[in-house]
Structures are given as structure tokens and as C-alpha cells.
Amino acid sequence: MNSIANIYLESVRKAYSDNANAEKAPAMQKYVKDKFSYFGIKSPLRRAIDKNIYLINSKLTSAESIDLVQTAFAANERELQYFALDYLLKDKKLWTIDYIFLFEEMVATKSWWDTVDVIATRLVGEYFVKFPESEFEFCDKWIHDGNIWLARTAIIHQLHYKKKTNFDKLKEFCLIWKHSDEFFIRKGIGWALRHYSRTDPEGVKEFVAWADLKKLSEKEALRLMNN
């Protein structure tokens, strides 16, 4: 028998299929380096479709929501992963302490910046505001994992923390990966530091001055202060 999550996701898939645009799909696929297939539905239309689906479908339990998200991330079409992200953001009240394992799995599944950055900054970042006691237990594990997407998540998850940013940890994470040639690591380091420079510009300048970061990381970190 189909689970509630499978039935829910099939209603999403049918609605997306009914609104698929074969002309737009190739450009969307090209934007992510042809890593994923697309129905060809732009975000405004997709979110309008989702709104109707939310109204039709009954509320899910936390366990059913996890099942829904995992099923969506196993699907081929990229829009179903976007649906899962929006669903989690809409139902944050369902989050339990165990959701961090789901977020970790999502980062490592069908990994690319378009999903990882939302997971890192909107899901993981907001999760650790709600459950701060496990923040650096997980981030310390991710930064040493060897997976660039988990490392990027550790580096950028505090992006919206402002004065609540643990700058010492951010610096530590940047130093661990500062020699990486991976574009998304170098860019992530610069992005995280640039955001924090709005709160502590002198601290970021001082760190960048001695940290010997890659050029891209340094340029991104100082961008707001060099304009």
C-alpha cells in the first residue's frame, strides 16, 4: 500500500507534469550543468501550484514529512527537491531534534549549490537556532568529513546569524579548508565572511589580512568594504 507521503508526492508530480514546459526545461537543466532533469516549471508557477496542493492535502506528522522529503529527494526531477525545501520551510513547527539527520542526508543527496545553500542557510541555520546544543557537534563532524557540500554547510550555516555568529568557529572552519581548490568551498568562505563583515568589518579585515586565503575567498570576503 502506498504511504501517505507517496500519495502526497504523486499529487505534486501530477500537477507538475500537467504544467511541464518542454521549452523551458533545457535551459533550466543547463543552468545546473546538466546534473538534473526538469519539468520546466519556473519558481513563481511552481509555488502557486504548491499552494493549491497544500490546501488539498491533509497535514502530515513529523515522521510522514520526513518520508515525503526523502521520497522527493530520491526523485529524478529537480523541481521535486525544490518542493521538499519549500515544504520544510513552511512547516518548521513540525521540526524535531531528529530533523538534523534529515538535513544532513539532504545535503549529501543530489548535491549542488541550488539545494545545498537553502538547506545550509535556511534549514540547518534555523534548526540550530531552535536546537543550539548540537550545533558544533555536527558542524565539527561535517568540516572534517571530506564532503565539500557538508563542509560548505558548516561554513555558511551562520550566514544570517549577524551578532549571534560564532566568529571563532567561522574562522576555524575557513582555516581548515583555506587551501582547497574547490570553487564552492572558496566561494563559500568568502560569502560567509562577507556577510559577517556587515556586523564586524574590522574583525573580518584583520582575519583576512593574516589568514592567507585563496584569492577568490579574499575577494569575496572584502567585497563590501572595497566598494
List keywords for this structure.
single chain, 227 residues, mainly alpha, 13 helices, 68% helix, globular
List the helices and strands and how they pair.
Blueprint: H1 4-18, H2 25-31, H3 43-56, H4 62-74, H5 78-90, H6 99-107, H7 113-130, H8 135-143, H9 148-156, H10 167-176, H11 183-197, H12 201-211, H13 215-226
Helix pairs in contact: 1-3, 1-4, 4-5, 5-7, 6-7, 7-9, 8-9, 9-11, 11-12, 11-13, 12-13
Could you characterize what this model shows?
There is one protein chain. With 227 residues, this protein is an all-alpha fold. It has helices at residues 4-18, 25-31, 43-56, 62-74, 78-90, 99-107, 113-130, 135-143, 148-156, 167-176, 183-197, 201-211, 215-226. It has a domain at 1-61 and 77-85. It contains 13 helices and no strands. The radius of gyration is 19 Å and the shape is globular.
